[in-house]
Fold this protein.
Amino acid sequence: MPTQILNALRTFMHGNGAVLLPELQLLLFAVGMLVMDTWADKDPTSRQRLWNPALALAGTIFSALTLWMLHARIIESGDLDAFQVTLIVDSYFLYFSALFLAATALVILLSVNYPASFGLTQARSQARYYALLLFACMGMMFMVSAVDLFVIFLAVETVAITGYFLAATPGPSAKPTSTAITPLTAGMLGSAILAYAFSLLYGLSGATNIGRVASALTRRSNVAKVIVLSQQAGAHGAEMYQLLQSRLPGSVHWHPFILAVLPISAFILISIGILLKLTTTPFHSALKEAAPGIAAPVLLFLCGAFAVVAIALLMRLALTIFAETQGLWWYIVAALALAMILWGTYTSVLETNLQRLLASSSIAQIGFILLGLVSANEGALTGMSYYLFTYLFILTGAIAVLITVRHNGVAAEHLSDLAGLRRHNPISTILLIVFVLALAGFPPTAGFLGRYLIFRSLLQTAHPVLAWFAAIASIPLAYSYLRIAVYAWRNTGSPVESAAPSFGIPEAVVLGVCVFVSLAAGLYSEPFTRLARYAFGQ
């Protein structure tokens, strides 16, 4: 009997299980932490408190190693699929899964010395927190691996639910219950909209696999074109009319506008549903209300990784299901992107709270990235994946500096709290200025190149108005970021009383990696753009 079980398990792991292995490893580590936590001491020693982040970090490392093995496997045999083509392993999945794992690992490292600041002094609270991070990362990986509408919906719900619990993780002065109410309420609306959009796609195609849905919508679009031709005068119109009567007799009475508007309606609903679930309105509203009460590592995860996975999923669906109708839905994406840029810029300019400023400005950053879908050419897609990669590290670096500064005795809640920081902590000041300049899009940082690639693609595809509008909107956004640098550099105001500046090993690792990406990806971009092209198999 044990031999049969082992053989069955081995067969599964060489088949469908191989596709699931990276996510399964995260699940096992998360569950393992929760099980081990049942007999943990209520007041553990400092060494015992390191077990939870160590296990969480080990889970991300094992999952990353599995991704590397899957990368070698798809090079030899091509893309992998499992469970009747509901999950796939391709270059797109590998790229974004590696990015999610990196984001999770960085948040774990930043959380090692942070628990006492947000009430997680007990090992059980820490275990739940780190398990939620792994569950969220697992859900994100499923979102970019799933090619079935039902599985995508379940993955989105998994990520959103973990986000609600993470948003309720308090900071030094938090009110955790109210923090989670806003995203929960908006998420319920997003779930209803997304479910209706997916049901609409199923009704139009009779399938849940996004490849089959795309084929059905393409046939529907072709029928609409033939109907338009059949309504024209002349011999060609009569020929198309006879063709329709012989093959699709009932279609001669269909209106081409109805055939085209339903798929576009589904695209609008999907976009709104995803953004309601994972970005803009719910989580950023909660962050604006709760900051600085919400834990800074959680702020990073919600503003960074959640935004990346939302755009990654939207790209997958837009470029697969709705690829044939890009000439219609780019107007919708452009309007949505411009609205996000304007709103994010406006709110960030008015903010003086540092965490609220970063949360508000991230809405504008998402808008800039979405402009790449307006062009949807090779350069735009490379720019989007490059922008997402570098933005995650730049934002991580900025929040990591705030965390380390707070550990050194500086409040770092409002802009005025940074006055005199250069005199007492010059290293943190320089690092903060580097990350702020990168977020603002100044050369030679990675933030400049990411935005440049998006703007260039808009010009190449005859969208100069959008390119110039976005470039002009970058000026007030840069102003909101530069205020941070100015306050940190100047010596005026009340002197900052702090202990000798120090960096823990986890914070030093995070800051080193982030500053390297922020500068190296801008000064020598070729390896990073090549990595970005890998996401689309280029």
Observations:
- Residues 176-205 form the longest helix (30 residues).
- The two ends are 47 Å apart (CA to CA).
- The chain is about 75% helix and 0% strand.
